[in-house]
């Protein structure tokens, strides 16, 4: 079973991701505002920076999340945010399944007794 701190981290990710997706759909959003939100969760900011560096390596230095968002665009940033959420859901599901798996086997093991 996931600990309270894991749920807190997952809740924080989901809150930031939900807000980022809202901002990405808003035509008034700019890269600087979106980057400030993403910088609050280093995992997302790192993913955005790594993607920008992979795509634009050798074309200058990418020194901020805002610059990275500008380079890769809102569509790719949205895919990065969605991928991070899916990764977190899978991690939590595996954690919960590992903890509860022995309990699921109890009826099968002791049903014949």
Instruction: Report how far apart the termini are.
Output: 29 Å
Shape, per Cα inertia axes:
globular
Catalogue the unreliable spans: 103-113
Tell me roughly what share of residues is in helical segments. Answer: over 70%
In angstroms, what is the radius of gyration?
19 Å
Please summarize the sheet with the most strands: none
- Report the average pLDDT across residues: 83
Secondary structural class:
mainly alpha
Number of helices: 4
**What portion of residues belong to β-strands?**
under 5%
Give, in order, the helices and strands: HHHH
Tally of discrete structural domains: 1
Quaternary arrangement of the chains shown? single chain
Overview in brief:
This protein is mainly alpha-helical. It is about 80% helix and about 0% strand. The protein has 4 helices and no strands.
Commentary on this structure:
The protein is mainly α and 113 residues long. It is 81% helix and 0% strand. It has helices at residues 4-25, 31-39, 42-55, 65-110. The radius of gyration is 19 Å and the shape is globular. The two termini are 29 Å apart. Mean pLDDT is 83; it is low at 103-113.
Properties at a glance:
single chain; 113 residues; mainly alpha; 4 helices; globular; disordered C terminus
Give the SSE layout.
Layout: H1 4-25, H2 31-39, H3 42-55, H4 65-110
